[in-house]
Each structure stands twice: as C-alpha cells, then as structure tokens.
C-alpha cells in the first residue's frame, strides 16, 4: 500500500513534466488555426507580445529571402533607414489579424521606416488572397519559403517582429502578436513614426 501511494505522485509529476515539455516543442510542424483569414482590427484587450531586447546591437542576418518580384534580397538592401521586419504565415491567426495594423504603421511612417511583412509559408502557398482580402495599400509580398529569417531570429514563434536601426543593428523584437496601432506599439515606434 505504501509503495502504491508513493508511485502516484511520481507518475503525476512525470506526466505533468511530459505535457510541459511537449508544449514548448519548437520543432513541431505548424498546425492550421481556425479563422486564420480574419483580417478585422483586433478587438478586446490590446494584444501585446513579449518585448525582447537581448539582441540589441546585433547585426541583421545576412540570409536572403524573396522580394515581391521573387528575386533574392537581404536586409542589407534596406540599410540607411530603419526597418521593421514582421515574420508571419497565412495559417497563423494572430499574424493575419495584426497585418492591418502593420499596414497602418507603414502608412504613418512614410519614408522614415520600412515595414517588411515576410511570409514564412512554403512556396506552394498563395499569400495573395490575404493581401487582397486585407486591402493592404502599403505592405508588400515578401516571402521566406525556406524560413531562413525564422531560423536566424530563433524565436520559434510567429508572429515575430524585429526593428533594425538605419545601420542594420537590432533595436528590439516583439515575440507574439501586437496591436501596432495600440499605445504600447506607439511608444516603441515613437521615434520612427512620430
């Protein structure tokens, strides 16, 4: 009887540990999310991802991705002005929901800040319908089908948004969704969008 009682807490602890570890698995294939094509402005509390400044001052990765014409480009091509790089995917509901707010940031920033939304979808996924449905006027269709930037940023999560200064050095990153029109985002971007 004493052995049976001592085994139960150990079994529960092992099961709980397994569940926690499985929840942090960054190697799993992404699963489609319901309503991922909803492009409405965020409702309810302002989504605020985790602000990370641990990489401040690090150079932008040299990995190439595809410009809207399908030609290879690197972040170095944008040196000379600040760049806000947003990694997203069509299957990521929070990514798609924040895109209208990124389009608004791109509009407000004008030439002071370049906003790059870089799809992490595979080559066979058409990202055009997301842009058409969203009616984006300022976002362009950059793609990273090999997830080079995703691996370079090493957050294991979408959306991930990284701000680089005019010299190509990281200022901060936000891991998770953000209402880019909200007060927190406005504070983070105040220097760049006025």
TrEMBL record:
Residues 28-51 are annotated as: Disordered. It is found in: Cell envelope. InterPro entries: Redoxin, Thioredoxin-like_sf, Thioredoxin_CS, Thioredoxin_domain, Thioredoxin_ResA/DsbE_sf. Pfam families: Redoxin. GO terms for biological process: cytochrome complex assembly. One of its GO terms (cellular component) is cell envelope. Residues 54-194 form the Thioredoxin domain. Residues 29-38 have a biased composition (Polar residues). Transmembrane segments: none annotated. GO terms for molecular function: disulfide oxidoreductase activity. Keywords: Cytochrome c-type biogenesis, Redox-active center. This is Redoxin family protein. It comes from Sphingomonas horti.
């Amino acid at each position: 009887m004493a052995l049976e009682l001592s085994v139960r807490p150990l079994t529960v602890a092992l099961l709980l540990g397994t569940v926690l570890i499985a929840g942090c698995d960054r190697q799993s294939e992404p699963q489609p999310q319901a309503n991922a094509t909803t492009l409405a402005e965020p409702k309810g509390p302002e989504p605020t991802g985790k602000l990370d400044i641990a990489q401040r001052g690090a150079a932008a990765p040299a990995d190439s991705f595809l410009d809207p014409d399908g030609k290879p480009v690197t972040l170095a091509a944008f040196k000379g002005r600040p760049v806000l790089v947003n990694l997203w995917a069509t299957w990521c509901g929070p990514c798609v929901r924040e895109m209208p707010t990124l389009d608004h940031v791109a509009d407000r920033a004008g030439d002071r800040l370049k906003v790059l939304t870089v799809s992490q979808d595979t080559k066979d996924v058409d990202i055009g319908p997301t842009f058409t449905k969203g009616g984006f006027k300022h976002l362009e269709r950059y793609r990273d089908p090999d997830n080079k930037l995703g691996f370079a940023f090493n957050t294991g999560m979408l959306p991930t948004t990284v701000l680089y200064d005019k010299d190509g050095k990281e200022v901060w990153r936000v891991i998770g969704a953000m209402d880019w029109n909200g007060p927190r985002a406005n504070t983070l971007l105040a220097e760049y969008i006025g």
